[in-house]
Design a protein that fits this description.
The structure holds 2 protein chains of 2 kinds.
Chain A: H1 18-27, H2 32-50, E1 53-56, H3 58-74, E2 85-89, H4 116-123, E3 127-132, H5 166-173, E4 179-184, H6 190-196, E5 199-202, E6 222-227, H7 230-240, H8 258-263, E7 270-274, H9 284-299, E8 303-307, H10 315-330, H11 349-360, H12 363-376, H13 382-402, E9 408-412, H14 428-432, H15 439-444, E10 447-455, E11 461-468, H16 473-487
Parallel strand pairs in A: 2-3, 2-4, 7-8, 7-9
Antiparallel strand pairs in A: 1-3, 4-6, 5-6, 5-10, 9-11, 10-11
Helix pairs in contact in A: 2-3, 5-6, 9-16, 10-12, 10-13
Chain B: H1 7-16, H2 23-40, H3 80-84
Classes of the chains: A alpha/beta, B mainly alpha.
Chain lengths: 488, 103
């Protein structure tokens, strides 16, 4: 091989399954401490090329691994995630660990408590490796809005991993963690999962506690898992889901055994296909891969029928009004008083607020705060914010009607495969359109899963979005399993 | 909903949001806000007369129960010293800020 052509740099590596890893740890064949140390070695080697981890929580991780190994040696019962190395999106707080939300305004902040979802993973035995990169305050579709630099896609380092949970998706794709937590407000779990070729779960609104999540848009924000396969993602959701007295929006509904749900056959399930998600603007290779996935579902015994979601085209404008209005309120707390960055030497309180926010917020965060403040301001509230909330109801009711006839709805997750770094940074609207197929489920509060369903000719992953009705995650997992199984 | 945002509007909104924008930044935001507001104006195509606004999805039929409030009982909260350790300026009891009122 004397060819001088530049090889495409790829860092893709598939993590072992939870079942396989846990069997090794239970039997003592694998030490949790060795597993964690191995992951830290790989992070040291690979992270400089991908910029996935913002900080490592090695001391806490190795302590937890030692606990797991001691319990395994004694034959004590082990948690369902015993010794499993996971990464946490940096918008979820971890006690005494850096929690930046990808923003300069929280540089140096060490929160005094754990997010509920993080604490639940650890209580199940997981080893928390560290905090992973994301767009600033989860605002972005490419991870290029992080104040700590963009994450690179492990499949092709010239491309974005998607966003805002780009670090969470890239960590699993590059085997820098077996699984991760991310958050999804308008597509921030599903879209990066699609770009990186991994499984990402949008749970029903209220299914997973947001206590300890640094809020972006409170009526939309969700916490959900990433994993290398559907069953592992289902297992993780079962651990983090469930009512939390510390989150008044968390649902009291019982949590099913999602992994067992995902094992059920799909024969007889009714799958809806909305034409609105297959129109203009959809990349032909993405369309072809998703259509092959639909054929696989038919072969597995599903029936497929068209469903109509005519308000889909209004979802992006609705989303960007609702989300920015809520963001402008949520981000008012960052004022340099109680935590985070304070601009030095301001002569008055008002100047201190303005200078701190001006110096430490990035351009996209300012843009969204301004848009949201404008939409909520006197004289514009009815025309923008109220109007968007009305359209939000139309969008949600349209889904409820569709789910009267079908068990799941299948669409492309994103209109395109991973795009190049800097391709869309100059045009906020073009960036927003990367979320065109994901914001609808966010507004409606329903659940969904991104499952890889093929690649483009250039080898870029394509994701299928499987949507199901409120609290019907089990059905979404079943359908996603069938698509995954057909990939071979 | 088709009102063009002016540079004065950007200044007014920035003030409401406690943001300070330099002249270049204000010009860029003016351009971006107008582009985004032009785009969202397509919502005007929809007749939403009589449609109740949806603020929370828990209002939807079949959602499966809204959140549950916990009992109103006093419980220990986060330790003051742990909270104060994160403050930019504090006397360990209060947060300190620059002067609010000129005398």
């Amino acid at each position: 091989m004397s060819s001088e052509t530049k090889p495409t740099q790829t860092y893709v590596e598939k993590p072992k399954s939870l079942v396989e890893l846990r069997a090794g740890i239970t039997s003592g064949a694998v030490k949790a401490a060795d597993l964690a140390a191995g992951y830290y070695d790989r992070i040291a080697a690979v992270n400089p090329h991908l910029n996935v981890y913002l900080s490592l929580t090695k001391e806490r991780a190795m302590e937890q691994a030692a606990h797991v190994d001691a319990a395994a040696a004694k034959g004590d019962p082990l948690g369902p995630l015993a010794g499993i190395p996971v990464g946490i999106k940096d918008v979820l707080v971890m006690k005494d660990a850096p929690s930046t939300a990808g923003s300069k305004i929280l540089e140096g902040y060490r929160p005094p408590y754990d997010a509920t979802s993080v604490a639940r993973l650890e209580a199940a035995g997981a080893v928390l490796l560290g905090k992973v990169n994301c767009d600033e305050f989860a605002m972005g579709s490419s991870n290029e809005n992080s104040a700590y630099g963009a994450v690179r896609n492990p499949v092709d380092t010239e491309r974005v991993p998607g966003g805002s949970s780009g670090g969470s998706a890239a960590a699993v794709a590059a085997n820098l963690a077996v699984a991760t937590l991310g958050t999804d407000t308008g597509g921030s779990i599903r879209q990066p999962a699609s770009f990186c070729g991994v499984v990402g779960v949008l749970p029903t609104y209220g299914r997973v506690s947001r206590y300890g999540l640094i809020a972006f848009a409170s009526s939309l924000d969700r916490v959900g898992p990433f994993a290398a396969n559907v069953r592992d993602a289902a297992t993780l959701l079962g651990i983090v889901a469930g009512h939390d007295p510390k989150d008044a929006t968390s649902s009291p509904a019982p949590v099913p055994d999602y992994a067992a749900e995902s094992d059920k056959p799909v024969e007889g399930l009714r799958i809806g296909i909305p034409a609105e998600y297959f129109g203009e603007g959809l990349d032909p290779e993405v369309r072809a891969a998703v259509e092959r996935g639909i054929e696989d579902l038919k072969s597995a015994g599903c029936s497929v029928k068209p469903v109509s979601l005519p308000h889909t085209r209004y979802a992006i404008p609705t989303y960007y009004l609702v989300a920015t209005a809520e963001a402008s309120a949520n981000l008012a707390r960052f004022d340099g008083v109680r935590y985070g960055y304070r601009s030095p030497a301001s002569e008055s309180l008002a100047a201190m607020y303005r200078h701190s926010r001006d110096e430490a917020f990035g351009a996209e965060v300012k843009r969204r705060i301004l848009l949201g403040t404008y939409a909520l301001s006197a004289g514009y509230y009815d025309a923008y914010y109220l109007k968007a909330q009305q359209v939000r109801r139309l969008l949600a009711e349209e889904f409820l009607r569709a789910f009267a006839d079908v068990d799941a709805i299948v669409t492309p997750t994103a209109p395109m495969p991973a795009f190049k770094l800097d391709e869309k940074t100059g045009d906020p609207l073009a960036m927003y359109l990367a979320d065109i197929y994901t914001v609808t489920a966010s507004l409606a509060g329903i659940c969904g899963v991104n499952v890889p369903c093929g690649t483009t000719a250039a080898g870029l992953p394509v994701g299928m979005q499987v949507l199901a009705a409120h609290l019907n995650e089990g059905t979404a997992f079943r359908v996603a399993r069938a698509v995954e199984a057909a990939q071979g | 909903m088709t009102a063009k945002v002016t540079v004065e509007d950007v200044g007014r909104v920035a003030e409401l949001a406690q943001l300070e924008l330099g002249p270049d930044e204000a010009a860029r935001m003016l351009h971006d806000l107008n582009a985004i507001l032009d785009y969202v104006a397509q919502l005007n195509e929809l007749d939403t007369a009589g449609v109740a606004p949806l603020a929370q999805v828990s209002e939807l039929p079949g959602y499966g129960g809204s959140g549950v409030l916990r009992a109103d009982l006093a419980e220990p909260s986060t330790d003051r010293a742990a909270v104060m350790s994160q403050a930019p300026e504090t006397d360990q009891v209060f947060f300190k800020v620059p002067k609010v009122i000129e005398r």
